[in-house]
Structure formats: structure tokens, C-alpha cells
Amino acid sequence: MFPVQLTLLDVSARPPGEANAAAVQDALRGCAGPGDGLEHVRARAMPEGVGLVLYVRAPDRAAAERRAHALLDRALAAGPAGRFAPALPLPPRRPGADGALGTARAFC
Fold first, then answer.
1. I need a surface site. Which of 42, 81, 92, 98 has the fewest CB within 10 A?
2. CA 76, CA 45: separation in Å to the nearest integer?
3. Taking CA 21 as the corner, what is the angle to CA 20 and CA 23, rounded to the nearest 5 degrees?
4. What average pLDDT does range 16-22 have in this prediction?
5. Minimal CA–CA distance to 5: which of 83, 61, 58?
6. What confidence category does residue 103 fall into, taking pLDDT thresholds of 50, 70 and 90?
7. Do 53 and 2 meet the contact criterion of CB atoms below 8 Å apart?
8. Using an 8 Å Cβ cutoff, are 67 and 37 in contact?
9. Half-sphere exposure of 31 toward its Cβ, with a 13 Å CA cutoff?
């Protein structure tokens, strides 16, 4: 089982709150089928939208991420969760002066 972290941005004009997180969590559970490998979902309200961790049973991390994204696409296409959109990661940053690489997340 692999944890897959995702951030959803609220693209509506509604105020943030725990009800948003519950609606997304319910939509994910409602759309999940046996082939998705979903074991557990954690959803938390954030000022930008909803932070998620999907615990997905899969043979490897890449498969878990594919399953999580496919499930999320279906959940966002149906019902009240449709007011959210996935946040897109930025490409890796160039090495800094100390040679360290980093990543950043964009909130579009």
C-alpha cells in the first residue's frame, strides 16, 4: 500500500471549510471500485481547497499514483466535488548555490 498526496484547489467562490473536505472524501469513496485499490482516504480543509492522502494498494508507487489520479478524475467529474481541480506541481528547480535540488508546488 502506498500513500499518494494530492492537493485540490477550490475553483468556486465558496468559503473553505471541513465540509469541503468531507464532500471530496465522500465522492472518492463513492467512485472507488475494487480495481482502484483504495484502502483509506484522509482529507483536510486548507485555505486553497483540500489536501488529500489516498492510501492505495498497488504493486508499486507508479501504479498507485496512476490509480489515485484515475479515481480522482472520476470523483471530480461527478457531483459536488466538481468544484475542485488538482494543483499542478512545478518542474524541479535548478540546483542552488549549494548544489541541492528542490521541488515546489504551484497553486494555480
1. 98
2. 16
3. 65
4. 78
5. 61
6. very low
7. no
8. yes
9. 23
Give me the pLDDT at residue 71, please.
94
Name the helix (H) or strand (E) containing 94.
Answer: none
Residue 69, SS3 per DSSP: helix
Question: Nine-digit cell at 47?
Answer: 485555505
How long, in residues, is the chain? 108
Provide the residue type at 12 as one letter.
Answer: S
> Residue 98: which pLDDT band, with cuts at 50, 70 and 90?
very low
- Given a cut of 60, whether residue 3 has pLDDT beyond it is yes
pTM as predicted? 0.74
CB atoms under 10 Å from CB of 41, counted, come to 21
Is 72 buried (19+), middle (13-18) or exposed (0-12) by CB count in 10 A? buried
Give CA separation, 49 vs 10, 59, 80, 84, 96, in Å: 5, 30, 13, 7, 31
Q: Is 43 helix (H, G, I), strand (E, B) or coil?
A: strand
